[in-house]
Amino acid sequence: MIDILFAIIPKLEPFAPTTGPALLKSHCEAGGLTATVRDYNIDLYNWLKKKGLHNHYYYDDDSGFITWFDRKFAYPEEWYELYDVIEPKLLDWIREIKRINPTWVGLSMLSSASVCVGRKMCELLREHAPQIKIVIGGAAVRKEYKQWIDQGLIDYFIYGDGEFSIVELLKGNTGASGVNSPFPHQVDNLDTILMPNYDDINWKHYEFDYQMAPIYVTGSRGCVKRCTFCDVPLLWPKYKWRSAEHLFREVELMYKKHSRRMFRFTDSLINGSMSQFRTFLNMIKKFNRGKYDIEQIKWWSQWIVRARGQMLEEDFELMKQSNVNELDIGLESFSESVRWHMGKKFTDDDLWWNLEMMHKYDIHYTLLMITGYPTETLEDHHHTLASIKRMSELGYLTPRGNSTSTAYLSFGNTMLIQPDYKIYKMLKDDPDYIDCVGDNDWSYRDNTLDERLRRHREIHELVQEVSGLESSWLQKKHVREIEKNDMRKHRDAEM
Length: 495
Hints:
By secondary structure, the chain is of the alpha/beta class. The protein folds into two domains: 188 residues, Rossmann fold; 296 residues, pyruvate-formate lyase- activating enzyme, CATH 3.80.30. Helix content is 41%, strand content 15%. It contains 17 helices and 17 strands. The strands form five sheets. A six-stranded parallel beta sheet has the order 8-11-12-13-14-15. Helix 4 crosses helix 5, helix 9 runs parallel beside helix 10 and helix 16 runs antiparallel to helix 17. It is globular and about 65 Å long. The N and C termini lie far apart (54 Å).
């Protein structure tokens, strides 16, 4: 009998195995416990693909990016359709877990997909293997999961960083930091976290046709910003980063042991500590020297716009020299006043200089945007349209696959407002704010759901017109999601 089985359950995409279970396995084994990892996320994708059903449940664009169809997450009842299809696979997993017979099962929850499938797995485990203790953790887990304990679905949850807490819990310390706690546990020194153990992962399952699959790495936790709409500070109240040397050791280990070449950083931003960022990139540059292109390390990360002076032109040149593949940039708005309200305090001059540098050094990037922030006016919207046209005129918007720099705008959010978010606390007593039914269904002055949807579509049409770029899966996802929310609102009103 082993102490714990960590299950990677469906998250958002079968892109790479999640790093959390591999980290937890390392810490458990270092603590004298036995642990194994099962990758049910890729198992489900391959099973559906073999049955010819993957195109029904996954979105696969021409770039090879694969993600769950959002319509399967929109409302819990819609998962019943999926359960009917995948129930044989779920039962296969339960039978395997029963055969292994661990004392504990740990479920890694990273997304709405994880939560929906994870809940079903907990129900099945309770039914078929009631003797097994269940603990859940991951980025999607919050203090509200105490409800799952009250409902008898799980025994424990870990809120926040779990590498050290899981070992204490399995050894009997139910009061370990973050365990069934309303407060997230955060590791103070990320250099004390061990290297992940991927020995249980079959990497051949990730050799997709379009490229060798990346591997996830984490250089920091938390964020230097406190954006009004973001839940990152809820999980990581303080920004913590690994030393460049410790981070590079992991990259080098994954390169040599598992033949990974593409590294996708899970950080909220890779340039939170500029000194460590520069040191790390120089280490990659040195490592790649003299190697053929196909043998070199490449990387992909989220990134924040920094003020001119904090970022230097030499930093963009260094990113290019270190083989940056793509950056996901949390711009959110072209309006400086809107960004200021969000907490993203950089000027338009800073923004356009950053875009100029990206173009000059041929760096591909995606601008992550929000349509219809509460304080966004019609004038702000028109400014966004003008900015998109300006990007096109400057040659910053080009089709995917073009050899020059590509900006791929992704207006993927029509401003979800959650009670825990800073934006909700700022607006809840504002007489101009009306909190209606549903996360998207709110009004702020003349900024209504219908108006946000209109702006969203107008932007999509313009991006396609001036660039030839197709709407991203994220754009399509939120348009459909809003439409469904709207349809449901009217349906419920008629009942």
